[in-house]
Specification:
Layout: E1 3-11, H1 15-26, E2 31-34, E3 47-48, H2 50-58, H3 62-67, E4 70-79, E5 82-95, H4 98-112, E6 115-117, E7 122-128, E8 131-137, E9 142-150, H5 157-162, E10 166-170, E11 175-182, H6 185-189, E12 191-195, E13 201-206, E14 211-218, H7 220-226, H8 234-239, H9 249-253, E15 258-260, E16 263-267, E17 271-272, E18 275-277, H10 292-310, H11 314-325, H12 328-345, H13 349-355, H14 358-363
Helix pairs in contact: 1-4, 1-10, 2-10, 10-11, 12-13
Bound molecules: flavin-adenine dinucleotide.
Flavin-adenine dinucleotide binds near residues 13, 152, 279 and 292.
Length: about 375
């Protein structure tokens, strides 16, 4: 089969891969996105916080994203049944199922002429002198690209080829489960996140006009007991610390509970030669921060600027990635540390409130000193 050439090959059609493809194609780059699944992924986040909404707004997508989503502006936190704080988002945040958000960006990509190769995974990545030369795909196709982006999730094949060692730490003290249930009045009224000193948490929020999502976190030993035989003995346990959401209890018993594995991920390097990592291939933090997508969208903006500024010059690309993309490790590291602090303290009301940072929670890295966000300048 003939070899295809393009400016940028992106492995993975999640939020990071699709958004970067859109930005690059709008600036005249020929982009091919390789996705192992039959379509864009369906499993992922529901919340887009203000920093991510601002990124979308900069590219004319915020209204489109918000049109079919839900806007919320408060999350109420409880500890052992008592309200302990309201976290307010002055500009609101967006709730929209991951697949819908990614599909929206995918549709924009299609209008820009981005080439998507679905059902295509990587068989082999040929390297030469520290650079990716060619991608060989499972369907027999071959692809040569000036730049290769691994936006291929936590188990990134691109990362493995680049020989960048991941530091993955599973959050083992809390098992997470999620279910989609009918919307009730209390969930429609307010997002509520309950913690217990027994090491449980549960989060109720609306997903659409008639559905809601419920997350439950619990110690591994309780998970075995509560979810045994496929019929969760959940409600009695929740009644001990869930006070203002009891109208949702009936639907929880018969819900289908999916177990989610969550780990943090840190890397020592985000690029090698002409290849770079984006999104969950580069970093992962605890979902309690609700910021993974926002940071990924901003990272894609930086990558698009760097790739376009390099203009096909290999050495300049390497230098620009080192100067402008590698420093993202610092912002990601702060976010991962923050997620670690939230999950480590939520059992203890005072420790949690001390660890909670409304600035980082609401505004993300925008709340950090500007020196950590270097402007792209010629070097
Ligand atoms: C439980 C949970 C809840 C979260 N909640 C939030 C939240 O509320 N708000 C928020 O901002 N962030 C949240 N996040 C983080 C957010 O989901 C990620 O930041 C975001 O999805 C990263 O997008 P991505 O494009 O890197 O990855 P993904 O969406 O994982 O996309 C990777 C894609 O690569 C494809 N792929 C993998 N390997 C290959 C291969 N070899 N060849 C071809 N394709 C391949 C996969 O099929 C997939 O489509 C949450 C994360 C988790 C785990």
């Amino acid at each position: 089969m003939a070899t295809t050439s393009c400016d940028v090959a992106i492995v993975g059609a999640g939020l990071g891969g699709c958004f970067l493809a859109l930005l690059l194609s709008r600036r005249g780059q020929r982009v091919v996105v390789i996705e192992q699944g039959p379509s864009v992924p369906s499993a992922g986040a529901d919340f887009l916080k203000p920093p991510g909404l601002r990124v979308l707004a900069r590219h004319g997508l915020a209204d489109l994203a918000g049109r079919h989503g839900l806007r919320r502006d408060v999350i109420r936190y409880y500890h052992d049944g008592d309200p302990i704080q309201d976290c307010r988002f002055p500009d609101g945040f967006l709730i929209r199922p991951y697949r819908e958000l990614v599909e929206l960006i995918y549709t924009c990509c299609a209008m820009e002429g981005v080439d998507f190769w679905f059902d295509a995974s990587i068989d082999d990545i040929a390297m030469d002198d520290g650079r990716v030369e060619e991608l060989a795909l499972s369907n027999g196709r071959r692809l040569r690209a000036g730049v290769v982006i691994g936006a291929d999730g936590t188990k990134s094949a691109v990362r493995q080829t680049l020989d960048i060692e991941p530091c993955t730490v599973p959050y083992e003290r809390v098992v997470m489960r999620v279910a989609t249930v009918p919307l009730t009045a209390s969930i429609a009224q307010l997002n509520r996140l309950y913690f217990s000193s027994d090491g449980w948490f549960t989060y109720f929020y609306p997903l659409s006009r008639d559905q809601a999502r419920v997350f439950v976190g619990l110690p591994p030993e309780d998970d075995k007991e509560i979810f045994q035989d496929g019929i969760p003995a959940l409600v009695d346990a929740l009644k001990k610390f869930v006070t203002d959401s009891s109208d949702a209890f009936d639907s929880l018993q018969s819900a289908t509970w999916q177990r989610i594995k969550v780990s943090s991920l840190r890397l020592g390097a985000y690029h090698k030669g002409n290849a770079a990592l984006l999104g969950s291939a580069a970093f992962a933090c605890h979902p309690m921060t609700g910021m993974g997508m926002s940071y990924t969208l901003h990272d894609a903006e930086i990558l698009a600027d760097v790739i376009c500024a390099a203009g096909g010059d290999k050495e300049l690309l390497d230098r620009l990635l080192s100067a402008h993309y590698e420093p993202r490790k610092h912002a990601h590291g702060q976010l991962i540390d923050y997620g670690d602090a939230l999950i480590a303290t939520f059992r203890d009301r005072d420790a949690y409130l001390a660890a909670f940072r409304p600035d980082l929670h609401v505004y993300g890295e925008a709340a950090m000193p500007a020196t950590e966000l270097p402007a792209l300048q010629p070097i």
